């Protein structure tokens, strides 16, 4: 144990036991941070202004503090069409596992439709015994369930394919992934009502936006865990996230989680839409492309500290990050502070749910020397998040979609943090 | 229902606390005409293609008026993506993915254009204009002749170079 290091490390670069912060008092007494004087109350001392006058009245809908206005989605619209593009979740500013609804990432092909729910309906047709329509008010009477799951755009993190590491904050780079509680009707209940014919294998989902976005989904998935969500994080879904009805396909790439859902067409084959041929397919070095690669494989990244943060002093920091897998639960996240030479197990914060963001943490003692921080996720199928070189070896550099390689943050001696390929 | 679906169905009943028996059955028989009005899905074999026709000569006029501002001269790209004029193949660095080099089915061009383009006025072109502009995009990609008429029977037959370029990753359970 070095002189600078008051507690035992569990891996190179100063990683500490993940349970350290949970053992009450240990670190804090060791570091003896004295704040008693600062907190002492002195009679008749001047009061902070917000304690010296009545506060603001009630509000119909709460907003973030005026001091948190920097925590926003970054929007990237098309120059000729403001409603075409994406906005990203600022993952570097958030904690826990739930993304506030107003910060959930967006991908719109042609803007956010302003749908009047009284005029919206869902049509289920094709290979069914009885084509049916449902209005939104009637759907409220159906049995509902909640799914806490991430939605990740198939194109998330695609800057990772570039040959030089792009230096930008986590949200810009990896923020087309968000996590919500979605509440709605298991899709199989509505399919059972329409009586799906045995010749059906696929369904084509279509949204009521200006691009009538459509995409094909295997019937197996629809019968397994898909829901038609009416609510997100307890309230009706926000317009930009699919109001009034969204198809949720847990663990599968964002594009099949069709927003503004108006039609489900049962068929015996995929429709071969633009968004399952020209886009959301991954070109391999052979010139062939992967198609219908729906599942978002295990991924993790350290959100604290990360690019844009600065370590101002040596000492103990809490590394915090997110891990998720479209195949099920995260069972382990390992963190390295020496560029991958040695790894330590991070603490997984409960709840750890299937196809959901999982928050991991591990304390780290920074001695002021350069370090490289990495995290890697392992899911319940045994899948291990690959190093970037491994991913490129397997899939080449031009797949564009489904980039899930390990992210490396270099901490320099002056405490600044950079994205590196290491 | 085949065995696989029955098993899947029973499985989800076990996972979710709610079951189809709880369903209030409020779906209404779809009104006549709604299915026809809404179902724009066009399949690779041409199923779903409407009546109408057009060739690249008229298509160029449609393109110039409604598409060029975003997709550039001859489909080479602008504020919106490139649609033709690939300079590289799919194994080059960087690869060039256009309708000619990458898209597996010509029917997708019609389907997507009808539902989503022109971006600033989706749904505004009639079927003859849609066949014409589709023909123009296929012609720009050297897939058909300039005078070749595209309609419900000729469009699905256009040979797409990358027709067999995709590997299905989905394994049904």
CATH architectural group of the domain at 40-157 in chain B? Orthogonal Bundle
Which geometry of chain B do the CA atoms define? globular
Mind describing the biggest β-sheet of chain A? 5 strands, mixed
Task: Name the chain pair with the biggest interface and residue counts per chain.
Answer: A-B, 71 and 67 residues
Question: TL;DR of this structure?
Answer:
The complex is a heterodimer of chains A (422) and B (173). Chain A is mainly beta and 422 residues long. In chain A, 10% of the residues lie in helices and 32% in strands.
Please provide a written account of the structure.
The complex is a heterodimer of chains A (422) and B (173). Chain A has 422 residues and is mainly beta. Chain A has helices at 26-31, 36-39, 136-139, 170-174, 187-194, 219-224, 388-395, and strands at 9-11, 15-16, 74-78, 81-88, 106-108, 121-126, 132-135, 145-152, 177-186, 202-207, 214-218, 227-232, 235-236, 246-248, 261-267, 282-283, 289-291, 299-304, 315-324, 330-336, 344-345, 347-348, 358-366, 371-379, 408-411, 417-420. Chain A folds into two domains: 106-290, Sulfite Oxidase, Chain A, domain 2, CATH 3.90.420; 299-420, Immunoglobulin-like. Chain A is built from seven helices and 26 strands. In chain A, the strands form seven sheets. Chain A has a five-stranded mixed sheet with strand order 7-6-15-10-11. In chain A, strands 8, 9, 12, 13 and 14 form a five-stranded antiparallel sheet that branches. In chain A, strands 21-20-24-25-26 form a five-stranded antiparallel sheet, with no helix packed on it. Chain A is globular, with a radius of gyration of 24 Å. The two termini of chain A are 27 Å apart. Chain B is globular. Chain B has a two-stranded antiparallel sheet with strand order 2-3. Chain B has a domain at 40-157: Cytochrome c-like domain (Cytochrome Bc1 Complex, Chain D, domain 2). Chain B is built from six helices and four strands. Chain B has helices at 3-15, 34-38, 56-66, 68-71, 107-116, 127-140; strands at 28-29, 53-54, 150-151, 166-168. Chain B starts with a helix and ends in a 5-residue tail after the last strand. Mean pLDDT of chain B is 90; it is low at 1-18. With 173 residues, chain B is mainly alpha-helical. In chain B, helix 5 (107-116) crosses helix 6. The interface between A and B is large, with 71 and 67 residues.
